[in-house]
Amino acid sequence: MAYSDKVLDHYSNPRNVGALPKDDPDVGTGVVGAPECGDVMKLQLRISDDGVVEDAKFKTFGCGSAIASSSYVTELVKGKTVDEAMAIKNVHIVQELSLPPVKIHCSVLAEDGIKAAIADWKKKRVDAVEAPRAAAAASK
Amino acid sequence: MQRRGIYMDNHATTPVDPRVLEAMLPYFTDVFGNAASRSHGFGWEAEKAVDAGREQVARLIGARAKDVLFTSGATESNNLAIRGVVDFYKDKGDHVITQVTEHKAVLDTCRALEREGKARVTYLPVDGDGRIDLDRLREAITDRTVLVSIMYANNEIGTIQPIGEIGRQCRERGVLFHTDAVQGAGKLPLDVDAMCIDLLSLTAHKLYGPKGIGALYARSKAPRVRLSPIIFGGGHERGMRSGTLNVTGIVGFGAACEIARESMAEESARLLGLRERLHEGIFSQLDEVYLNGHPQHRLPGNLNVSFAFVEGESLLMGLNGSVNAIAVGNGVAPIAVSSGSACTSATLEPSYVLKALGVGDDLAHTSIRFGLGRFNTVEDVDYVLERVVSEVRRLRELSPLYEMVKEGIDLKSVAWQRE
């Protein structure tokens, strides 16, 4: 199989590999895929109080295209608002990396990773901000 | 010619040995006759070359030369053996026994015969190392069984089946025994009489001969095997396989068999030494690596390993020179190996052979097959070892699974989000 230059570049020099503290209330962690399906992506986003993605880190188990898709989205989401990040579609990743049809699922995984990370962040916000507030209101 | 890197995929195919090529060359231009032409010297010379090649192929497997039929390769040989027996013996029975880890050329022929309503097929399971249970085979044979087809050595995991014992069981029960010996021939001892083999498939390109030429051994007495042809025409090869003989290919096939036979003992010991060097190197330097296939009963040149938490195709990509910027320039040679990962298969399913052993899909996705051959050296092994270890380490740094396991998380307990 021939890989596009961009896939090769992200595969050999992946951007933003690593981890953010997963218990930090500003960090959302998404883990998508399954080992028996051959791909698992962990995407972590640090999101500011005003809802801007300040940092992104990933680790991915998967083929070269899955690694490249993950690496690419970490670059893509940085600086975006939560709403903008939620609007990222897998077709955009397919086009940017010139993924062949058999590799489209890799781009879907990356899109799902963003959504899962943001969902985790939102849940934390609810737990950290709104739950104590509700508890405080209840105790009044 | 420029060297294209290190070739360690010798179960897929092998290069033509220069001595084989040398033997073949005159038969393209000087001795070009049709071996079936009886009316002139061009034909007689070609026929003589075919007879000599047939003799050389027969000697490798301990057979009589007249029992060797030339085909286009092992896929055709497997098709002819199974379909030919089922069709010819249809009045005697319609049951075939094979096993789940056979090559697709056997499995798909069996499935086609089932679909056509011509045969009922029992697919024997294998144990965790890839061997069949001889008691189960004994129980599976019925009065309607016409053929047992069990491969000598598996192309993915290298596991060797006890074909001598299988052959004896079949002989006692009066059932014909076919073996696909493509991977074992030239590497392991083979004797069709001692092993009670009635039909045996071979191909030249797995033993340093050319592609496009193979053979089917079909025993002509004690017992005599009868076959219905699958290719019709001029009645070549005792009517069992029509078509003008590939004289050049047969000459090369013969030469390849002769070299393999003469060097087998020494070469198998050498390959085993290289294989064990690679095996020990990998297992001493990396954690979470798993051997697939039988630890002892395996082809000397075969090593199949799952590198847990590193997907196979991504590892191949790091080795095979896809990353051109790395491969060209600073002396990094591309390495050719293969994987049982779904991403490398046309079906997007992980290896059915590994699945049959009970290897989980998670580990099947991380499997790599190393196929050592005649032209691999100790230096090749050391180089491949170094590259594999460093790529696996790099990709594990990228692997969320490796990270989770190192944190003490049991991956089986995680609620994975499946598509």
General description of the model:
The complex is a heterodimer of chains A (140) and B (419). By secondary structure, chain A is of the alpha+beta class. Chain A has helices spanning 5-12, 64-77, 82-86, 90-97, 104-139, and strands at residues 27-34, 39-47, 53-61. Chain A is 51% helix and 19% strand. The model of chain A has no long low-confidence stretch (mean pLDDT 93). With 419 residues, chain B is of the alpha/beta class. Chain B folds into 2 domains: 18-260, 3-Layer(aba) Sandwich (Aspartate Aminotransferase, domain 2); 264-411, Aspartate Aminotransferase, domain 1. In chain B, the strands form 3 sheets. A 7-stranded mixed sheet of chain B has the order 2-8-7-6-5-3-4, sandwiched between helices. A 4-stranded antiparallel sheet of chain B has the order 9-10-13-12, with helices on one face. A two-stranded parallel sheet of chain B has the order 1-11. The chains are: A alpha+beta (140), B alpha/beta (419). Chain A binds chain B through residues 3, 8, 11-12, 14, 17, 19, 31-42, 59-64, 66-67, 102, 105, 108-109, 112, 116, and chain B through 309-311, 313-314, 317-318, 322-326, 341-343, 348, 350, 360-362, 365, 397-403, 411, 414, 416-419.
